[in-house]
Amino acid sequence: HQVSPFLDPGRRTKADSLAILQLSRDDFVPVYLQSTVGEHDGYAEGAVTNTRFGSFPHSTLLNVPWGSQIRASKVDTGSRGRKRKRGVTEEADGPSSEATENVVAEKEDGTANGTTKQAVADSSGFIHILPPTPEIWTTSLPHRTQVVYTPDYSYILQRIRARPGTTIIEAGAGSGSFTHASVRAVYNGYPGDGKRKGKVVSFEFNEERYHKMKKEILDHGLEGLVTLTHRDVYRDGFLLDGKSPEADAVFLDLPAPWEALPHLTRRGGKDGETERVSPLHPKKTVHICTFSPCIEQVTRTVSTLRHLGWVDIEMVEIAHRKLHTLRERVGLNLPVDRGVNNSPRDVEEALGRLAEIEERLRETIARPRTDGDDEDMEDEKPAVDAEKKMDAPELLKYMWQDGRLVTRMEPEIKSHTSYLVFAVLPVEWTAEDEAAALEKYPVGG
Ligand code: SAM
What we know:
The chain contains twelve helices and 18 strands. By secondary structure, it is of the alpha+beta class. It has three domains: 17-132, Vcp-like ATPase, Chain A, domain 2; 135-320 and 418-439, Rossmann fold; 323-370 and 382-409, no CATH class. Helix 8 (257-260) links the parallel strand 11 (249-252) and strand 12. Helix 3 (134-140) runs antiparallel to helix 5, helix 4 (150-159) packs parallel to helix 5 and helix 10 (347-366) crosses helix 11 (392-402). The longest helix is centred in the C-terminal third of the chain and has 20 residues, at 347-366. The relative contact order is 0.09. Residues 145-148, 171-172, 174-178, 203-206, 209, 232-234, 253-255 line the site of S-adenosylmethionine.
């Protein structure tokens, strides 16, 4: 049984396993590497992945260290080439053995300039081959629904205390973005974690999505850790063959979480039915998160949670922004400043500008610095004597210090802006617990 490449990819790529081809910084293509020998889909080399940077026979992608840079190959289109490209096949039919010589293993020099035997127009590109991670999968997965993005799920997973050994109930599975992140969080395959059996118990109502996801779980080697069930959880709840999955964490990404919540009580069953099996762990506190785009959904969810005895209810919205902080340069209109070409037209203009800058700097540094909100700053003495003649390096130093600190927002990171509702369901205190406690700590005794 092969461990999922998401959990333990090993050092090198292998056949019948998922790998990620990185074309550029944010462009990832998931590929199932195939060991097929002989003609495949018309290619004499076996399986080939075509990208905008050229063709990559899988023979060049297999058994290389993760992170390797791989050069594109001239591929032998075999029968397909002969069929479709009559007249140009001779050119296209390079000897297939040459393909393997195109591996520039382990990014030796970090450039694309390794020499290969095939310097032909359609084989000049390269890619990097990366092991799959939930983060990369989230950005490259085939979207079947809205998905939960990394900024949200990283926060959610720590708030619901997902860790090796946790059993998470998840509904609906959707495109499996959250599933992949959560399975890694609860994975118990590391040495010493043998006894902690973490798993993800996932439910999906849409049949087509269910089948696609089922195949993905299998292809990604996650079948031992993710149980996917085709079910309407509003109606039929979260038991597996009538038995409790004994979950201690729950994540609901559903249009109406309040419809599912009545199944997630200590007694299980909807509408006050008594003594049904609960899908929750009987002896563990349960942490839940529901994920909803509208505040009306949040209100109904919170109300239902309160009604069903959940505590510590809290709503959070993750607003993920990347701030780029820099100090503005004082009057230094360098050639490409914010994309505008400001270069002086001639030496005279350059000298004029420098004189202007010098003058402005003298004025600025003669004043006390007041770049904070701090009111006490008024008493502060100028840092330097304005009368003192400064040489160019000294001036430059002050130019740097005197620029205002500015922050600019980088283009927004993709994140499904939803409201996150968190709550906790404490362990139920039973009559037996009370009796045991009284025996151990007798009242008045
Ligand atoms: N969290 C997923 C991800 O990260 O890829 C996306 C979930 S998607 C927004 C919501 C999913 O819930 C849809 O696939 C939908 O079919 C499923 N769903 C809706 N109602 C359901 C129900 N009653 N029972 C089970 N699944 C349901």
